[in-house]
TrEMBL record:
One of its GO terms (cellular component) is ATP-binding cassette (ABC) transporter complex. This is Amino acid ABC transporter permease. PANTHER family: AMINO ACID ABC TRANSPORTER PERMEASE, MEMBRANE COMPONENT OF AMINO ACID ABC TRANSPORTER. Signal peptide: none annotated. The chain crosses the membrane at residues 21-40, 76-93, 105-129, 234-259.
Amino acid sequence: MNSRSASVLYDVPGPRARLRYRLAGALGALGIAALLWWIVSTLSDKGQFDARLWESFEYNAVQQRILDGALATLKAFGLAAVGSLVLGVLFAVGRLSDHRPVRAVCTAVVQFFRAMPLLIMIFALYAAVFTAEPMWALVVGLSVYNGAVQAEIIRSGINAVPRGQGEAAYALGLRKTQVMTLLLVPQSVRAMLPAIIGQLVVTLKDTSLGYIITYPELLFVGKWIASNSDGYPYIPVLLVITPIYIAMCLALSGLARWIESRGRRGANRRGAAAA
């Protein structure tokens, strides 16, 4: 069944085509291996793997500072993620409002903050409002900017829901607020979950902009360690903190896949019970 359905979409590759694919894959793997070897050898020639540049990471105080930076990154991300999702839902619903003034204001706000460079927004908030609280300058900037992007994602999901569902809900006497909160928004979030999680990953990575306003997140801590260590080991510091960022992003993506699979299993169970 699978092979027959696949052949409808594309021609099944023959022996020569499969050989070409294997050859292309092998050449690609060799190219990546050669690139990695060149990077490692270049760093080694420049002394970036010398023991003296890595001695700083042996101290408990430095390790604790890196842990504190990672926790500060997660704290800012958690607050910004909640804020961006709440603002995203509000802006999306506002853009679909039947009231023209509400729709116009939400549209203007979304378009403005999507066009505003995030770094400028964060720095302006820090300089004008949150001078003593750099974390809130970072959180508010991330929330507003990513909330505008999330609003467009959620609005697209709402528009993708079949119109008949909304019309049926109105026919049953539900108000627009009830239709949005009980029917359209939950379905749009499930449908657009990959895009929503993708934007949350962007939010997590954008917390690194906090170092501009002296918020002690992971990148700021890495810069501090490199600036205060013998030999200024910026490359070793990057090699230490980059895997931490990657691990956090992969964990977030894994959580998204788990939520999506759990929701799919729940929908299948409800469908089986209804049948």
